[in-house]
Amino acid sequence: MKPFILELGVEELPPFEIESLEEQLKENFVKVLNEERFEFSGIRTYSTPRRIAVFVQTLSDRGRDVEMEEVGPPLEIAKKEGRWTRAAEGFARRLGISVDELYEVRRGNKVYVAGRKVQKGRSIEDVLQDRIGSIISSLRQKKTMRWLPFQNIPFIRPIRWILALYGDRVISFTFLNLRSDRYTYGHRLLSGKLEVPSAQEYERILKENYVIPDRLERYEMMMREIEEEKGNLEPYRDESLYREINGLVEYPQAVVGQFDEVYLELPERVVITAMKVHQRYIALFENGRLASKFIAIINNLKEYRDNIVPGLEKVLKARLEDARFYYVQDTKKPLIEYLEELRDIVWHTSLGSMYDKVMRVKDLSLWMADKLGARRDVVERASLLYRNDLATLMIRDGKEFTELEGYIASEYARASGENPEVVQAIYDYTLMEEPRSLEGAILAIADRLDTIVGILSTGYRVKGSYDPLGIKKALYGIFDTIIGKGIHLDINAAIEKALEIYGLQDSIDDYSSFVFSRLENYLEEKEGIRWDIVDAVINSGLDDIYEIYARAKFLNRFRRENPQLFEEIVTGQKRAGNILKKADSIPEVRKELLKDPHEKQLYETAIRIRQPLEEALAQKDYPKAMELLLQVKGKIDAFFDNVFVMVDDDELRNNRLALLKMVKGLFDRMADFSRIQIEGK
Question: For the segment 261-317, what is each residue's pLDDT rounded down to a tens digit?
């Protein structure tokens, strides 16, 4: 048992792909080791922009031998008149055993001869030579390339070297045009080609040559560097940016640069975006306000900062100067004057221009404002401004600033002297944060619902995780907004209104199904609410997404806190549902036909709690509603235990079915419990 290291040296990897490739390499390698029956322990991985590697603390030099049974020809073919035939001899020879070692086995109604053979474990050299291609080709990658004329295995970047060591011995194999060896490469600027004496010394050799191969250790080093350099300023917190930077450097060092304070007159996010999108600089704040300094993580030594920082500052100045030019030119006229220019911007080839979309969203937003009690004047003005930044230089031509769409509209609305409530509504539409205003939440919902209805009307459908037009993301934005703001909106009515505004005569069924099926996924992913509970609540007849969420959340908690009681409720409702499925038409309950005391008690209890149940549900008092239903639960359990429903007497049978239907209807007002899955059943 010795340590082992396998490293693939590559040209610079895309930073957001590195973590995934590192984990997949580990998974694929461990899978091969298990399939080839190696003994191993202590798996860890390494990754930098120029390499991915898997290290095994202890690994057997070859896979374990295993004895296997193999079934051969039928007995009547293998043995005739008590003597082995040529078929048996050939079978035994193939197994490497004598015919005397063959034995009989029964498979079904037939008898065969069988033998045991030893499958020898393979060496790590043989395994890697045979399977390195499959290990690499099964790595999932967004984009791949071929860089050799004979290459049949595409990879995300050209592979330039392979290191493979078992202890201090090179594991020799060939992949593409490369032969594995004991050489790696240190830092591109501060080192060169390195000989690694043994697998155990791999990490040490790299660290001594300015490469921190452990991704998490490199991240921690970067964060320490930021902490040391920031002084009394506060760095911009963006985990995605930090992870991206970590995937771009092998030896992170922090330096501080600065820029002219005149650029602080620009909107704050514009300056931050100019720093991070292309330069990956980290903005700094002083007392909550943006400072005219930044931190850059360089892939070099800080002793060269005097040569490096001026270049960093020069590049940033050019981008900030572009932004300043855009801002000055764009704000020479009010934001509302850009509205007509939206006519020249195509939103969708089948659905018209961006101007058409804005007009639809305005109408839908005003309809929602009336339903939800929002200010019509704020909603209308915001809807006429919120997309106008698409016609400005900052968004249309400022490539690195396109992610600020909506935010720029709010800032230009402020610069145009618009009502602060209108400015807030425009900002809220972006969903960069949870909306502060109801008007902004309405605009966010209306815009995204218009997108969903329009795109679905063209025949587009989301297939699994493939959704290039992003309508699932748009729908999740609607859910986030409704649940975050506690908005009670009849979503089916909103869909019907959106279809009406489009001038479509479509049935809402497909649109509604898309929304509610995704709501089940959303609440399970984001809130941990079981999908079947959400399904049960949806089938109680609710169209209000927030109420579906609140009720499902209550039931999910009730199930978790009272698992046995919850299962009994579900079981009872499933039983009632199954019985009712067999009935064609069910009349109303006739009280005079109730004979058994258990059915009388069930009827009286159901009648008694019916009105209080409606009131509790109307007031969203779900604990009270459940308390009332539990009063019925005991009676329905007793009913099932003591009363036979499907009697021969038609009148009596139909009356008992009617009673069951009435009682199930009470439970269905809370949720269709019969749709909930019982674990293990």
Answer: 999 999 999 999 999 988 999 999 999 999 999 999 999 999 999 999 999 999 999
Please report where in the chains the tokens 């801002």 appear, as a residue. Answer: 327
Q: Which residues pair with 415 in a beta bridge?
A: none
pLDDT digits (tens, 9 = 90+) for 202-253: 999 999 999 999 999 999 999 999 999 999 999 999 999 999 999 999 999 9
Task: Please tell me the number of Cα atoms within 13 Å of 232 on its side-chain side.
Answer: 2
Can you tell me the distance from the alpha carbon of 549 to that of 414, in angstroms, rounded to the nearest whole number? 36
Question: Across the chain, what does the average pLDDT equal?
Answer: 92
Is the pLDDT at 66 greater than 80? The verdict is yes
Q: For 59-123, give the DSSP string.
A: E-SBPPPEEEEEEEEEHHHHEETTEE-HHHHHHHHHHTS-GGG-EEEEETTEEEEEEEEEEPPPB
What are the structural domains, with CATH classification, of the chain? 2-63+123-208 (3.30.70), 68-119 (no CATH), 215-330 (no CATH), 350-547 (1.10.3210), 562-675 (1.10.730.10)
In three-state secondary structure terms, 278 is coil
The model's pTM is 0.80
SS3 156: coil
Q: How far apart are CA 86 and CA 632, in angstroms?
A: 78
Task: Note the Cα 121 to chain centre separation in Å.
Answer: 40
| 113 contacts 75 by C-beta, under 8 angstroms | yes
CB neighbourhood size of 447 (10 A): 25
